[in-house]
């Protein structure tokens, strides 16, 4: 699992590449929290285009980051969600707290 | 009862084997000519069951997880078994959002994912003896044959 970062204004954009399961969850959690804290990011956008697999461990990671960002009034969004990842997001009811946008441009407009 | 095909896999309860386990089961299921969505469903359900065995069954201790797969007509049966501590209250464990380890940022959605992505999920568990999760899924693509 690889993470690629981009910082635009006060929004951190993270591209997740690979498979998000229990094995990598802890490492990803620590790395994301460090980056959010270093960049003092208010909002967070996950680019999921290259996320090939996600199970309920991934749901835990996403909800955990949402809680941290939400505490300080920020927003969390996802973009370029594949069909299989969309299925997990729907099942977990994640779209009640996290908005989905087609691309980065649309998401940034709503941050 | 006679099965068309059978396989058994045994591996250490290490988290790096989660990806290994789901890929092996997906490869075994390939002979049923599954759709991309069906393969994705199988991989996710196996990942949940194996993760449960590692985190909850064995509390991250290094033991053995066994997977048995049987194919009968267009149905795949997957059994994921550990000899760990067992589940105290299966009903509660299956409730969406319930987790016995909230400190680990677990979502509590493991069984819900298995139930949604598979046709049937049966859980047998005995305290101190272990847990056995049996799941089945019928593959649609071979239905027309």
Automatic annotation (TrEMBL), chain A:
SUPFAM superfamilies linked to this entry: SpoIIaa-like
Keyword Nucleus: no
Species, as recorded: Anaerovirgula multivorans
Example of a GO MF term: antisigma factor binding
Function: In the phosphorylated form it could act as an anti-anti-sigma factor that counteracts SpoIIAB and thus releases sigma f from inhibition.
UniProt keyword annotation of Phosphoprotein present: yes
Keywords: Phosphoprotein, Sporulation
Protein's UniProt name: Anti-sigma F factor antagonist
Domain STAS, first and last residues per copy: 1-111
Family, similarity comment: Belongs to the anti-sigma-factor antagonist family.
PROSITE patterns reported in the protein's UniProt record: STAS (PS50801)
InterPro entries per the UniProt record, alphabetical: Anti-sigma_ant (IPR003658), Anti-sigma_F_ant (IPR014237), STAS_dom (IPR002645), STAS_dom_sf (IPR036513)
GO biological process, one term: sporulation resulting in formation of a cellular spore
Any matching Pfam family: STAS
UniProtKB/TrEMBL annotation, chain B:
Enzyme class, broadest EC rank: transferase
UniProtKB keywords: ATP-binding, Kinase, Nucleotide-binding, Serine/threonine-protein kinase, Sporulation, Transferase
Pfam family membership, one: HATPase_c_2
EC number: 2.7.11.1
GO molecular function terms listed in the Swiss-Prot or TrEMBL record: ATP binding; protein serine kinase activity; protein serine/threonine kinase activity; sigma factor antagonist activity
InterPro entries (UniProt xref): Anti-sigma-factor_SerPK (IPR050267), Anti-sigma_F (IPR010194), HATPase_C_sf (IPR036890), HATPase_dom (IPR003594)
Any single biological process term in GO: sporulation resulting in formation of a cellular spore
Function of the molecule: Binds to sigma F and blocks its ability to form an RNA polymerase holoenzyme (E-sigma F). Phosphorylates SpoIIAA on a serine residue. This phosphorylation may enable SpoIIAA to act as an anti-anti-sigma factor that counteracts SpoIIAB and thus releases sigma F from inhibition.
Record's protein name: Anti-sigma F factor
């Amino acid at each position: 699992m690889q993470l690629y970062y981009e910082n635009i204004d006060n929004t951190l954009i993270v591209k997740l590449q690979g498979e998000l399961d229990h094995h990598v969850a802890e490492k990803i959690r620590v790395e994301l929290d460090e980056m959010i804290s270093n960049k003092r990011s208010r909002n967070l956008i996950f680019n999921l285009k290259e996320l090939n697999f996600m199970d309920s461990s991934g749901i835990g990671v996403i909800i955990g980051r949402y809680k941290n960002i939400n505490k300080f009034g920020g927003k969390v969004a996802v973009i370029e969600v594949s069909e299989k990842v969309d299925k997990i997001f729907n099942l977990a009811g994640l779209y009640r707290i996290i908005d989905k946008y087609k691309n980065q441009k649309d998401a940034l407009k709503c941050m | 009862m006679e099965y068309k095909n059978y396989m058994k896999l045994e591996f250490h309860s290490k988290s790096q084997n989660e990806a290994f386990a789901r890929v092996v089961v997906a490869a075994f299921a390939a002979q049923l000519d599954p759709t991309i969505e069906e393969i994705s469903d199988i991989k996710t359900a196996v990942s949940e069951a194996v993760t449960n065995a590692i985190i909850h069954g064995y509390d991250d201790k290094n033991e053995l997880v066994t997977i048995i797969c049987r194919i009968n007509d267009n149905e795949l049966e997957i059994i994921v078994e550990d000899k760990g501590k067992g589940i105290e209250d299966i009903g509660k464990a299956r409730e969406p959002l319930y987790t016995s380890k909230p400190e680990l940022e677990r979502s509590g959605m493991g069984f819900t994912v298995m139930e949604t992505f598979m046709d049937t999920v049966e859980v047998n568990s005995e305290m101190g003896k272990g847990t056995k999760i049996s799941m089945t899924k019928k593959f649609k693509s071979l239905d027309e044959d």
